[in-house]
Design a protein that fits this description.
seven-stranded antiparallel β-sheet, mainly beta, Jelly Rolls
Length: 431
């Protein structure tokens, strides 16, 4: 039996906004060597001091929050910390705000809100004052663990007079966040045949540094019934750390019922740790593979009356015990079990009567018969009532497909009158 319809179509929940909720940073510390041992202290009175670092390859760039610098001593009220792109005299990206009081130790300089750093780009942190101060430096090349991939602290340099050796570095910590990956989705093979899973590829750019759970919304075309209710609605898929893609599959249901082709749509919904990219939803077409069910293509009275009651030279009336036969022609051969029936009507008001299945199982033509009994009269002829074919506990099928029972009717036909008062005469054999 074909599946029953569970609903009149199902629409997906509204696809979330294009940008996701604010995402946590991949790493609070983008790069640091502040945990390394200080090997030297260098005063920079009247001399700009600079430290070079390079960003990682994160596709969306980075947001700078602050830079920490280890000071041996700091008391200058006019201390200025700026971030330049490329060289110590390159474009100023940001002027950082220093803490309310300056002293020896790790001092945090805050970047203006919304300061962004491009991927795979060299930046130079420049400190300058007209008075005194001393920063801690190291000739060690190590960096602290926990930074973002691809970041590095390069050799220190002076933008004013070359007081540092090339191998020394300021002790700094760059704090911020990598831009969250943009997540998109693409359809796999389309169309698929019902019963075959619809597959989708979910892509994060750049690859997440930790397992990323992506929210999805699964729906199918209105009026379709290829996806089980439990497989629709809100779902998730995980893109593992360091990977850029994950595959999500939606099972489609196969059955024996002919139905319109449909589709499965999966959309990326908003969530933590990512933004929704421009390719936010994808569609896989689903094709039905079932033949259409057999249908009635023609209705006719196939029997021949045996009485010429009006002496016209052509028999037109059925007498007592005569059989009135109705032939239904189907679009293909059908098999019948039990005793299906349809309804004929006498004219003008002599009642409706069932014509029971008589013959034809295994062929395209089925014959239904009614035997005339006492009181049956139809002066205007017999009619066949439309859409009265019923299974009556039986079946009419082609293979596993149930036949469509709807059919046309026939108006009262004066060539097929009924009068039970006429004696039974054997009619010619049915065609």
């Amino acid at each position: 039996m074909p599946r029953s319809r569970r609903r009149c179509g199902r629409r997906a929940a509204a696809i979330a906004a294009a940008l996701a909720l604010a995402a946590p940073a991949y790493a609070e510390v983008l790069v640091s060597n502040i945990g390394q041992s200080a090997t030297h202290n260098r005063a920079f009175s009247g001399l700009d001091s600079a430290q070079v670092f390079r960003t990682g390859a994160g596709t969306g760039g980075y947001t700078l929050e602050s830079v920490e610098v280890k000071f041996h001593s700091a008391s200058a009220s006019d201390l200025r910390v700026r971030l330049h792109q490329g060289t110590p005299t390159g474009t100023v990206v940001a002027t950082l705000t220093h803490p309310s009081s300056l002293a020896a130790g790790n001092l945090t300089f805050t970047a203006p809100a919304g300061t962004t750093l491009e991927a795979s780009t060299t930046y130079v942190l420049v400190l300058d004052t007209t008075t005194t101060g001393a920063v801690s430096t190291t000739n060690l090349t190590g960096e602290d663990p926990g930074g973002a991939p691809g970041w590095s602290i390069m050799k220190g340099q002076s933008s004013g007079g070359g007081r540092w050796r090339d191998g020394r570095r300021l002790l700094i910590r760059v704090n911020g966040s990598a831009a969250p990956p943009a997540v998109t989705i693409a359809a796999g093979t389309s169309p698929v045949t019902e019963g075959t899973a619809a597959t989708f590829t979910v892509t994060a750019d750049p690859a997440p540094s930790a397992d990323l759970t992506v929210n999805l919304s699964v729906s199918e075309a209105q009026g379709s019934d290829y996806v089980a209710a439990g497989d629709e609605g809100s779902k998730t898929v995980t893109i593992t750390s360091g990977s850029t893609t994950a595959t999500y599959s939606v099972t489609t249901q196969g059955d024996s019922a002919d139905e319109p082709n449909g589709s499965v749509r999966v959309a990326v919904a908003s969530g933590a740790g990512y933004t929704v990219g421009s390719e936010s939803s994808a569609l896989v077409l689903v094709n039905d593979d079932d033949a259409p069910p057999p249908t009635v293509t023609n209705v006719a009275i196939s029997s021949t009356p045996s009485h010429d009651a009006d002496d016209s030279g052509t028999p037109e009336t059925y007498g007592l015990d005569a059989k009135i036969r109705v032939r239904l022609t189907f679009s293909e051969a059908v098999t019948v079990t039990g005793t299906p029936r349809l309804t004929i009507k006498m004219d003008p008001a002599y009642g409706e009567f069932p014509a029971d299945f008589e013959s034809g199982s295994g062929a395209a033509n089925l014959v239904f018969a009614y035997m005339v009994v006492a009181q049956n009269i139809s002066t205007g002829g017999v009619a066949v009532l439309a859409n009265t074919l019923e299974l009556n506990g039986g079946t009419i099928r082609a293979g596993t497909a149930d036949a469509v029972l709807g059919h046309a009717g026939l108006a009262h036909d004066a060539a097929h009158k009924v009068d039970y008062r006429l004696e039974s005469v054997a009619p010619p054999p049915p065609p």
